[in-house]
Amino acid sequence: MSSLADHIEAYIKKMLRSSGTNSVELSRAQMADDFSCVPSQINYVLSTRFTLERGYIVESRRGGGGYIRIGRVQVEDDYAHAVRLLQSIGSELTEKQMDNILVHLKDHQIISPRELRLIRGIVQQEAGKIGQGRNLLRASLVRSLLFFIIESKS
Q1: For 67, phi and psi rounded to 5 degrees?
Q2: Of 15, 70, 103, 105, which cross-links 110 as Cys (Cβ 3.0–4.6 Å)?
């Protein structure tokens, strides 16, 4: 079963696809009413699922007449963008950063949902075996696996 956060994310992504401009302006209060939730739930979805790592820019203004503007970062060449994204991975990578990168690449159809699950599973299994240095190992494994997948599709 999907969570409320999944439904809110899907709704926003649908609005972005249908906007024609790759950006949309929303009312936090209106969305909270539509989904029968508190505005902080909308904030949670925005801060965890619409990040720059996932290819989104979120601008927000609170108060009366406040709004949320969500824009999708335009990428001209998906594969060049993916390579630059991978090269930007530092020596360490948290699990949350890894998930954001993988979802971003899946959303741009650079990796498939199956490849996302495979990479996540392999990295979690290997990183779970060690006590210290998980973020170092995670960064190395993610870079290696994604470079292999991207090169094999070129």
Answers
A1: -150, 170
A2: 105
Conformation bin of residue 71: beta by default, left when phi > 0, alpha when psi is -120 to 50: beta
- In the block, tokens 């991207």 appear at 150
Q: How far is CA 90 from the centre of its chain?
A: 18
Number of domains in the chain: 2
Please tell me whether residues 65 and 110 are part of one structural domain.
no
- Using an 8 Å Cβ cutoff, are 62 and 21 in contact? no
Of the candidates 48, 45, 71, the residue with the CA atom closest to the CA atom of residue 58: 71
Q: Where do we find the tokens 């779970």?
A: 128
Range of the domain at 131: 78-153
DSSP-assigned beta bridge partners for residue 26? 68
Quick check: pTM over 0.70?
no
Q: Which tens digit of pLDDT belongs to each residue from 121-153?
A: 999 999 888 878 899 999 888 888 877 777 776
